[in-house]
């Protein structure tokens, strides 16, 4: 279960994870500790305990480093607010080896009994910061919707998209959806970061947040787009309306809206 001890080879990594847990008010599961929570996902997840011990340790440490870097980008106390009023549940990260899919899924977020679970493919060393911020937005949106189911009105969001636009709903088709994206249009005609943003409105928002959190050069270009500015503002308002922002100073995802 999630409190089972880890293998001897992962003891130091477990201590590192414990430090991050207490600093950010989250739960981080390693290796076999992920088993029960992973079983709740609708995708098949392979745990890191199938890896060679040295390889597993290196990958887990790299993922913990990525978590340490990215969690520090969020406002103080933000991640702890995912817990309920009793201090239970909240954000739970599963560091895993692989997530089954038809199109290369490297992170997945799903809800279960008080938890926002985020499974991360630890083999993605270079891209993990981006993946964490993307998945953390999905969890943020889930949390907001649990408090206010009308926070992301589909009609209000659709009004920020091009006339007559429809999301493709199929990730395998996203490469064909490049009109209105960052590198294919002038700023006035940019409505989406990339083709994957055109899968559905949830991916659209997660992609925007991921870019404003981690990709500073592209974010500087994206904010020139009136539609992206409005979408980001919409998302920021939803966060402000559903989180206690006491003590938040400069918020990274709002920094370019000024």
Q: How would you describe this protein?
A:
With 258 residues, the protein is α/β, with parallel strands linked by helices. The chain has eight helices and six strands, in the order H-E-H-E-H-E-E-E-E-H-H-H-H-H. The chain has a four-stranded mixed β-sheet. Helix 3 crosses helix 4 (128-147).
Q: What class would the helix/strand composition place it in?
A: alpha/beta
Radius of gyration: 18 Å
Please work out how many helical segments DSSP would assign: 8
Overall number of strands: 6
Describe this structure in a few short sentences.
The chain is of the alpha/beta class.
Please render the helix and strand layout as text.
Layout: H1 11-24, E1 27-30, H2 35-38, E2 45-46, H3 53-71, E3 90-96, E4 98-99, E5 107-112, E6 115-121, H4 128-147, H5 154-158, H6 201-214, H7 216-222, H8 226-242
Parallel strand pairs: 1-3, 3-6
Antiparallel strand pairs: 2-4, 5-6
